[in-house]
């Protein structure tokens, strides 16, 4: 699993846990506050009612005259009041009064309850015992099951409890306010969580980007591709990038020397053996014609060794470079024309037809020497694989240079290895192989110019090389 994915999963889990925790805190904290507020108001109202009845009951018996009319008038009265976003149109509380035995004397919402025994209810029983009496009960209603709060206050005259006044009220309205607060809290926490996730995503990208750049750089080094070390500043990631680059130099330097020594030894072994054999034979008596043939063979093999060494020096010089030098506007038409002029004698000797389709103003910003070296190798490669009397076509299109030969094409087994160092195919004319370094040089030059080079078979026959420059070059 990627580091960025792990960071985001951990971040999402943390934010979600915090989101659920805040909602739970709203339930655990805000709800009791609402219930406490409701109960407090009901207790004060019950106290007012019990005090009014006690004032009317100075003769030792509960007197409800006047109280019934007051409560009934209040309960049946209609009004309209906007309380924040809720409209209130009537009084929602009810009142019942019991005597000292707990028998109902009055109920503001249901007269059929008069005479019932409520002495077993906590609100009545506790109040009659001189304690604070209250209870909460779930009951059915037209709107479904609702919770009713009951809060009682004693009717006390001269130290005697004559009865109990209980105010009861559904918690629907209070929970409506609570639900609104909860919804608003949910929206607020949700928005805050989304903002935190958004910023966390950006922070994750910011943290993960250097890691991703270092990963891409490491993969490029692993695959043998040229890659510039990412610029990650002077902090910890910058120091890590610098360490990566130094480690790459150390590893590449060691493997580079080992590979080149092994390959150079292998490539030079054959011509040295030929030179040694010819030299040993020259020590013997032989006809002058044969002696000259052996001398020519020695010269040819030494030229071969010199060619390999020169190409190795060219390639090593390019591979050790990370940036271009002596940048200038290079006219590729002019470069290719010069190369064709130099190769004129070899091209004429094979009677190769050149179809050069120059495009005026095809210029790129780069290093002229390296570009000339790259296209010289491509043209030489096309010339060597083009048969006697064949043709080579060169044209430009959309910041690309195309060089097509009329040779046998590239075998399928070699398509993926054609740009490898020291990998070479037999030339059709003489069956010999080259040093296998020319196309490696072309690839290195292309990468230095942030370009791309490909070599593939053409549907009409032969091979076609495409050197594609970036749009901004």
Automatic annotation (TrEMBL):
Compartment(s): Cell membrane
SUPFAM superfamilies the UniProt entry points to: ATPase domain of HSP90 chaperone/DNA topoisomerase II/histidine kinase, Homodimeric domain of signal transducing histidine kinase, Sensory domain-like
Catalytic activity: ATP + protein L-histidine = ADP + protein N-phospho-L-histidine
Enzyme class: transferase
Gene Ontology CC annotations of this record: plasma membrane
UniProt GO molecular function: phosphorelay sensor kinase activity
Top-rank taxon, per record: Bacteria
Name of the protein in its database record: histidine kinase
């Amino acid at each position: 699993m990627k580091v960025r994915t792990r960071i985001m999963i951990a971040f999402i889990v943390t934010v979600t846990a915090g989101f659920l925790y805040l909602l739970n805190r709203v339930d655990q904290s805000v709800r009791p506050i609402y219930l406490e507020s409701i109960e407090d108001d009901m207790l004060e109202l019950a106290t007012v009612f019990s005090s009014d009845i006690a004032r009317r009951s100075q003769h030792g018996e509960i007197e409800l005259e006047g109280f019934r009319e007051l409560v009934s008038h209040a309960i049946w009265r209609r009004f309209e009041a906007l309380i924040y976003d809720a409209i209130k149109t009537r009084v929602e509380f009810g009142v019942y009064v019991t005597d000292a035995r707990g028998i109902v004397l009055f109920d503001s919402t249901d007269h059929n309850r008069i005479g019932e025994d409520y002495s077993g209810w906590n609100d009545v029983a506790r109040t009659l015992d001189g304690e604070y009496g209250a209870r909460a009960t779930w009951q059915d209603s037209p709107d479904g099951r609702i919770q009713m709060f009951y809060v009682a206050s004693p009717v006390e005259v001269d130290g005697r409890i004559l009865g109990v006044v209980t105010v009861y009220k559904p918690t629907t309205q209070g929970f409506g306010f609570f639900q609104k607060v909860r919804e608003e809290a949910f929206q607020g926490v949700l928005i805050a969580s989304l903002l935190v996730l958004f910023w966390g995503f950006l922070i994750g990208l910011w943290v993960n980007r250097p890691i991703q750049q270092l990963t891409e750089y490491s993969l490029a080094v692993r695959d043998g591709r040229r890659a510039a070390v990412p610029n990650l500043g002077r902090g910890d990631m910058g120091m890590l990038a610098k360490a990566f680059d130094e480690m790459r130099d150390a590893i590449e330097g060691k493997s580079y020397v080992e590979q080149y020594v092994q390959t150079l030894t292998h490539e030079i072994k054959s011509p040295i053996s030929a030179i040694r054999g010819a030299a040993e034979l020259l020590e013997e008596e032989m006809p002058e014609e044969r002696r000259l043939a052996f001398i020519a063979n020695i010269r040819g093999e030494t030229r071969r060794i010199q060619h390999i060494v020169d190409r190795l020096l060219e390639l090593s010089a390019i591979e050790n470079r990370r940036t271009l030098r002596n940048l200038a506007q290079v006219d590729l038409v002019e470069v290719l024309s010069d190369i064709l002029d130099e190769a004129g004698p070899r091209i004429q000797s094979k009677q190769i037809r050149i179809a050069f389709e120059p495009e005026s103003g095809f210029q790129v910003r780069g290093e002229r020497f390296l570009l000339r070296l790259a296209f010289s190798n491509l043209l030489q490669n096309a010339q060597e694989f083009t048969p006697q009397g064949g043709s080579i076509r060169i044209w430009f299109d959309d910041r690309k240079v195309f060089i097509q030969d009329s040779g046998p094409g590239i075998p399928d087994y070699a398509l993926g290895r054609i740009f490898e160092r020291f990998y070479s195919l037999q030339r059709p004319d003489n069956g010999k192989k080259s040093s296998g370094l020319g196309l490696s040089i072309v690839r290195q030059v292309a990468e230095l110019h942030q370009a791309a080079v490909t070599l593939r078979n053409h549907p009409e026959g032969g091979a076609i090389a495409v050197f594609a420059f970036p749009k901004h070059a």
